[in-house]
């Protein structure tokens, strides 16, 4: 993590691997995603929602989410350090910005951040944080202009949100889905059915996909031995770990790690 805000394209953020956004995971920084092309689905705290052009998503740090905009999707991501001087909303936000003036204001802020980041002049960190502060002002105004829907949060959504928080906290411990259900005071069957209704996947699938993201991230972004990666992600058996990776990716841990060196680098700045 850096001590200042950053601006990236979605492709840069995912480092060319769609799984980085599409599998449930969290970000150590606060993230503001501005979609400028394409449409798809986001899952935030266990609740699915449709996402399209001129949508702004605010994902607080360490919040379980996923995003799938397809191959034609494009957008910008502003990352703000969770413990830095810039204060971001502490709850997820999904803003559909229909006002052209508001769209242009946000675009101007993000463009200014891109220019500052690319120039790498002295005091760049201060300038980027100042731009990020302007971004938070824009967000607060947009939140006032578009108050949250008055529809009450259902009991099912509350349960799945609680489950998502536990999964994000404990996915690397090796706990089974039934253990989470017990902690939440419901049966595994009820948790499975509720999770499917809200997220489109079962409770076990959500847990598996979060584990898969953690596994792939360590395999592709560290040089830890495979048995160490297995232990760090809650697998007691190295053999089962290897079967898990092969089953869900079609490749062995060794093949996934080799793919990283062969992957073309994402350009420093992609045109919108």
UniProtKB/TrEMBL annotation:
GO terms for molecular function: DNA-binding transcription factor activity; sequence-specific DNA binding. Pfam families: HTH_18 (PF12833). Coiled coil: none annotated. The keyword ATP-binding does not apply. Keywords: DNA-binding, Transcription, Transcription regulation. Residues 157-259 form the HTH araC/xylS-type domain. This is Helix-turn-helix domain-containing protein.
């Amino acid at each position: 993590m850096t001590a200042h805000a950053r601006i990236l394209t979605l492709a840069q953020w995912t480092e060319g691997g769609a799984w980085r956004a599409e599998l449930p995971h969290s970000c150590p920084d606060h993230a503001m995603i501005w979609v400028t092309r394409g449409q798809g689905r986001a899952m935030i705290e266990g609740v699915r929602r449709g996402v399209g052009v001129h949508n702004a998503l605010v994902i607080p740090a360490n919040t379980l989410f996923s995003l799938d905009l397809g191959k034609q999707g494009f957008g910008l991501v502003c990352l703000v350090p969770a413990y830095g001087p810039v204060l971001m909303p502490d709850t997820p936000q999904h803003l559909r910005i229909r006002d052209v003036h508001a769209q242009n204001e946000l675009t101007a802020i993000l463009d200014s951040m891109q220019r500052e980041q690319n120039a790498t002049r002295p005091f760049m960190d201060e300038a980027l944080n100042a731009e990020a502060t302007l971004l938070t002002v824009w967000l607060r105004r947009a939140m006032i202009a578009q108050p949250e829907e008055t529809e009450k949060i259902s009991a099912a959504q509350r349960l799945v949100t609680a489950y998502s928080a536990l999964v994000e906290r404990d996915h690397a411990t090796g706990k089974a889905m039934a253990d989470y259900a017990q902690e939440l005071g419901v049966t595994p069957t009820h948790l499975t059915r509720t999770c499917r209704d809200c997220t489109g996947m079962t409770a076990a699938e959500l847990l598996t996909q979060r584990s898969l993201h953690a596994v792939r991230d360590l395999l592709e972004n560290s040089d830890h031995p495979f048995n160490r990666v297995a232990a760090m992600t809650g697998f007691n058996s190295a053999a089962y770990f290897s079967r898990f990776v092969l089953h869900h990716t079609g490749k062995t841990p060794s093949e996934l790690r080799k793919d990283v060196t062969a992957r073309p680098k994402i350009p420093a700045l992609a045109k919108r």
